[in-house]
């Protein structure tokens, strides 16, 4: 089966991990700060805080922005469940903003309308989490302008988008957000097996992210409430977690980061071949806008119209033919857990239409020309 996504591991990656195994530190050693510094440099952000997953990064990003019980967080319904869950972990409530079918990203028109309603009802969100679907940035400049008007904070869920650009700046530069988070799960652009990173330009937010990453414990005297008892002393000043990345993971991530531009280039080349192949078909493709570089975590096509049975049969057929077609994502508000919270089918019609039309095709740096040709033939035979 040709997978929809797959990691690319070379000998340098393997050597980097083995070197850590032979070193004094498997965790809390020099590899984690080295990976953080390298990614902050790559993205032009002031701070980068490595954690054990993007889910953890989202959780502590919400906490660092003060999200708690009574607060409201908005995100896109077309995302992985972790995005919305991260706000629920903090005791906040979650709501969604419908998407734009051309990009699959949160719609600015829907957002503006929802903000006006929320203001009238005194129920404005504290934080909005735009999700850069498939690697294409959301309209961050417009979202940021609305944040100034309505007073919310912004966390970019850039799990798909490390290595991408928006208005000629790296995603992660946080030009239009408070925090940007990345995932290094093996299906994503670069991997540390499991892992994530939270980037910010605020020293205060960076401090909080570090605090929540490691039990809420400090060991610097100037952050303590009473004089140190001695060289062993530390204080817990908040309720944090153990969300630390290991040095094994950081070494792998750092080694992968060396090849990120090659990965993005290859993914864009493959996407272009798909684009050309489908340009004279009745499939719709999610084409990135001119002012942004997609990292092409996913290549998504939309069937011409909603037909639940046809959509299902198309994916079954492609899988029978040896290629792992997939759907990203089942709208979060339709998950049973979220339905229990009061969401219903019909709440976000574009997200639901998108779900009934979308197919993710295999896309990863190791996909061969021959495999891609085969995939294109199979997809064209369907429509
Ligand atoms: C993968 C993903 C996550 C979670 O990432 P993990 O590193 O597996 O925790 C969150 N949001 C989106 C949009 C993702 O694709």
Tell me what you see in this structure.
The chain is an alpha/beta fold. The protein folds into two domains: 11-257, 3-Layer(aba) Sandwich (Aspartate Aminotransferase, domain 2); 260-382, Aspartate Aminotransferase, domain 1 (Alpha-Beta Complex). 39% of the residues lie in helices and 13% in strands. The protein contains 13 helices and 15 strands. The chain has helices spanning 11-21, 31-43, 54-64, 81-89, 108-120, 140-150, 203-213, 247-257, 260-278, 308-320, 336-340, 349-357, 369-382; strands at 47-51, 72-75, 93-96, 127-129, 153-157, 165-166, 169-170, 179-183, 196-200, 217-218, 235-236, 284-285, 292-293, 299-302, 358-361. The strands form four sheets. It has a seven-stranded mixed β-sheet with strand order 1-9-8-5-4-2-3, with helices on both faces. The protein has a three-stranded antiparallel β-sheet with strand order 7-6-13, with no helix packed on it. Strand 4, helix 6 (140-150) and strand 5 (153-157) form a beta-alpha-beta unit. The chain is globular and about 75 Å long. The two termini are 21 Å apart. The structure holds pyridoxal-5'-phosphate. Pyridoxal-5'-phosphate binds at residues 53-55, 79-80, 82-83, 131, 157, 159-160, 183, 185, 196.
- Principal-axis shape equals globular
Would you tell me the structural class of the helices and strands? Answer: alpha/beta
Tell me the β content.
5-15%
What's the arrangement of strands in the largest beta sheet?
1-9-8-5-4-2-3
Kindly give the count of domains: 2
Can you count the helices?
13
Instruction: Provide the helix percentage.
Output: 25-40%
Determine the CATH topology of the largest domain. Aspartate Aminotransferase, domain 2
One letter per element, helices H and strands E, the order comes to HHEHEHEHEHEEEEEHEEHHEEEHHHEH
- The CATH class label of the largest domain is Alpha Beta
Ligand list: pyridoxal-5'-phosphate
């Amino acid at each position: 089966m040709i997978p929809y996504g797959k990691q690319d591991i070379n000998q340098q990656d393997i050597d980097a991990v083995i070197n850590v195994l032979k070193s004094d530190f498997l965790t809390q050693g020099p590899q984690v700060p080295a990976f953080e510094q390298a990614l902050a440099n790559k993205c032009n952000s002031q701070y980068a805080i490595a954690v054990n997953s993007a889910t953890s990064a989202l959780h502590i990003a919400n906490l660092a922005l003060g999200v708690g019980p009574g607060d409201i967080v908005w995100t896109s319904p077309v995302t992985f469940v972790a995005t919305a869950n991260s706000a629920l972990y903090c005791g906040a409530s979650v709501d969604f903003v419908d998407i734009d079918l051309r990009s699959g990203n949160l719609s600015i028109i829907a957002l503006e309308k929802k903000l006006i309603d929320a203001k009238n009802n005194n129920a404005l969100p504290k934080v909005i989490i735009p999700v850069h679907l498939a690697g294409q940035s959301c309209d961050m400049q417009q979202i940021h302008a609305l944040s100034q008007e309505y007073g919310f904070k912004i966390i970019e869920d850039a799990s798909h988008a490390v290595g991408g650009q928006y208005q000629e700046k790296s995603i992660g530069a946080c030009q239009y957000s408070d925090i940007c988070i990345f995932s290094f799960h093996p299906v994503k652009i670069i991997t540390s097996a499991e892992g994530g990173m939270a980037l910010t330009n605020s020293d205060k937010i960076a401090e909080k992210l570090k605090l929540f990453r490691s039990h809420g414990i400090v060991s610097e005297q100037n952050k303590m409430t009473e004089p140190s008892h001695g060289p062993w002393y530390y204080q817990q000043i908040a309720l944090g977690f153990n969300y630390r990345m290991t040095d094994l993971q950081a070494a792998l991530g750092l080694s992968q980061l060396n090849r990120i531009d090659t990965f993005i280039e290859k993914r864009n080349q493959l996407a272009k071949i798909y684009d050309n192949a489908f340009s004279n078909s009745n499939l719709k493709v999610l084409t990135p806008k001119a002012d942004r570089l997609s990292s092409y975590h996913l290549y998504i096509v939309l069937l011409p119209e909603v037909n639940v049975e046809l959509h299902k049969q198309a994916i079954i057929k492609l899988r029978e033919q040896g290629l792992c077609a997939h759907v990203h994502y089942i709208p979060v508000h339709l998950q049973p857990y979220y339905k229990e919270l009061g969401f219903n089918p019909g709440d976000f019609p574009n997200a639901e239409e998108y779900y009934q039309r979308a197919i993710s095709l295999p896309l990863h740096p190791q996909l061969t020309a021959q495999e891609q040709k085969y995939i294109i033939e199979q997809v064209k035979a369907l429509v």
